[in-house]
Amino acid sequence: DLFAAVEPILPSLQEDGVVVWVLGSGLYPPGVMALQELLDAASEELEPEDVWEPEDMNDTCLYIFTSGTTGLPKAARVSHLKSIMCLSFYELVGASSRDVVYLALPLYHMAGSLLGIVGCIGIGATCVLKEKFSASRFWDDCRAEGVTVFQYIGELCRYLVNQPQRPGEREHGLRLAVGSGLRPDVWQSFLERFGAIRIVETYGMTEGNVTLFNYTG
């Protein structure tokens, strides 16, 4: 979906040795790697460990965009070790393989991709991926999909609280909300309106090495 934004600067990227990968079928310019064709042709057999196992867990696994907690917006280096640690995120907040996690966060940030997707893989939970968050459809989605865990950023909870009240708002299976940036007034309103949902507020920086969890509420 975003290839059109990259295409005009392809020559300069290629001059700098940057390889562009695109997920999705189509005709792409020379030098662009079409991942879908490679995935379709790939064997189901796992390659030997020495092919895919990193030599050093502190080596760079990937770069993730951060909006600049420690300066200007930039691509932050994420090591293999930090990626692997994200497997335990949902376990730390009290989720399990029986849970169904609702995820509508952008996957180009660490919260959505590593904590959300990788976190679900870590506990073997079901992940409900929503391309775009809808406050008016949220509780209908939760009922339809059997959602038990919601990963938020604070503004998403505010959008829900600001929706007009409607019947059935407490008729859901949501038991846990986990995320960052929930203001105290919205926190209180969320619980009063939607029921006894456990909230675990966390804070971490993509480019940092410390994470905080508010277990006590």
TrEMBL record:
Keywords: Ligase, Lipid metabolism, Membrane, Transmembrane, Transmembrane helix
TM regions (residue ranges): 107-129
Alphabetical list of PROSITE patterns matching this protein: AMP_BINDING (PS00455)
SUPFAM superfamilies noted in UniProt: Acetyl-CoA synthetase-like
Record GO terms (molecular function): long-chain fatty acid-CoA ligase activity
Catalytic reactions on record: a very long-chain fatty acid + ATP + CoA = a very long-chain fatty acyl-CoA + AMP + diphosphate; tetracosanoate + ATP + CoA = tetracosanoyl-CoA + AMP + diphosphate
Residue ranges of every copy of the AMP-dependent synthetase/ligase domain listed in the record: 47-211
UniProt cross-references to InterPro entries, sorted A to Z: AMP-binding_CS, AMP-dep_synth/lig_dom, ANL_N_sf
GO annotation, cellular component aspect: endoplasmic reticulum membrane; plasma membrane
Family to which this protein belongs: Belongs to the ATP-dependent AMP-binding enzyme family.
Protein name from the UniProt record: Long-chain-fatty-acid--CoA ligase
Gene name of the encoded protein: Slc27a3_0
